[in-house]
Specification:
The protein has 364 residues and is an all-alpha fold. It has 15 helices and no strands.
Length: 364
């Protein structure tokens, strides 16, 4: 596995890393640890409003950033890179899952969980749907994999749209593609969703997140045209859309309910973070001094896939004992302790995994 896989984006030339992007991805993946803390182990004691507000910073920005990092425009080259990246991401995920299966079967008797056939657990892992077998023991790990599954599906679409996204292509062609992807999402979500139930969820997710991916690529192509006035207008419009969604729902903040499957509401609530990335990218000036905190954040951004897999494991552990400790202290104290535990375990697992992978030669 190479460093480019850690970005969950098509490969970039060696030595061409964008520090702002790494810092942004590092902060975002650590926020996902918080998000999974309040949604999994914190489901019983964290107020729903906190969970809904937390969803305002979520994974759609990853797809936008991945599109921003797209640097391959030919169909053949893009197809080869997408296939290689899909294979490498899946192989790393499969190796991690295979290592987890024996641990699940060793721990199941201690937790009083009845044994199930190993093939059932293995089959569920291989199809990126670990909600069968013993995978319920790692709910955050299984709950995270919809993202990997959707990301791989989007990568399969990217070669067919990359030609339209070339920086030298007419802007009309690029933005016509955005309109087409948004129309595809609308048809999949609001017209054919009920009549085509078999693959409806996949169609909606692919159209929705491919649209965000293409938005990122369009921003990269026209980045110089996005001045302060245009970005300020975009941010105000994104905020206005959030307010419209809020009042449309009767003054109730309901972000998570629009996420599965994605909806216009979820798109509206995702836009401020996307526009925030754009503003930060245009205003970014590398800090003169590099603190340890920034270095750690940058490391997380460079190895975001390792942290992504590790946080799924880490955030599942407190689910095993949270019912026994949630009444020991006030909810904010319990949350803070669990979050620190999840962050520490996720970073230790990620660093350990990267170290071992490099020692055995599967990570450059």
């Amino acid at each position: 596995m190479t460093r480019s896989e850690g970005s969950l984006a098509p490969e970039a030339p060696r030595g061409a890393r964008d520090r702002y992007v790494d810092l942004f991805k590092g902060g975002l993946i650590l926020w996902i640890v918080h998000l999974h803390t309040v949604f999994f182990s914190g489901d019983d004691y964290i107020p729903d409003l906190v969970r809904q507000v937390s969803c305002l910073v979520d994974v759609p920005a990853f797809f936008f950033v991945s599109g921003y990092l797209l640097k391959t425009w030919g169909f053949r080259d893009c197809l080869l890179r997408s296939v290689r990246l899909c294979a490498r991401l899946f192989i790393v995920y499969a190796l991690v899952s295979l290592l987890l299966i024996p641990l699940l079967y060793l721990g199941a008797p201690l937790l009083g969980v009845p044994a199930v056939p190993v093939l059932s657990t293995l089959r569920a892992a291989l199809v990126l749907n670990p909600f069968r077998g013993l995978w319920d023991l790692l709910p955050a790990y299984g709950g995270s994999l919809w993202f990997l599954r959707t990301y791989l599906e989007v990568l399969c679409v990217v070669p067919f749209v990359c030609w339209f996204l070339r920086p030298e292509a007419p802007r009309l062609r690029r933005y016509a593609l955005l309109v087409l992807m948004l129309m595809s999402f609308h048809l999949a979500r609001y017209v054919f969703y009920e009549s085509v139930p078999v693959h409806a969820d996949m169609m909606v997710k692919v159209a929705f997140y491919t649209f965000l991916f293409c938005c990122g690529a369009c921003f990269r192509a026209d980045e110089a045209r996005f001045g302060r006035g245009l970005l300020a207008t975009a941010f105000l419009l994104s905020g206005a859309l959030c307010l419209f969604a809020f009042y449309h729902d009767g003054g109730v903040l309901s972000v998570q309910s629009g996420k599965f499957p994605p909806s216009y509401r979820y798109l509206a609530y995702s836009l401020p973070l996307v526009v925030g990335f754009m503003i930060g990218k245009r205003a970014w000036k590398p800090p003169i001094l590099s603190s340890r905190g920034l270095q750690a954040l940058e490391w997380c951004g460079k190895h975001v896939f390792a942290v992504y897999l590790a946080q799924g494991i880490a955030c599942s552990v407190p689910c095993l004992f949270i019912t026994n400790v949630r009444d020991w202290a006030p909810a904010p104290v319990v949350y803070g302790a669990i979050l620190c535990l999840n962050l520490a375990m996720a970073l230790l697992l990620a660093r350990g995994g990267v170290f071992v992978a490099r020692r055995v030669g599967i990570w450059e």
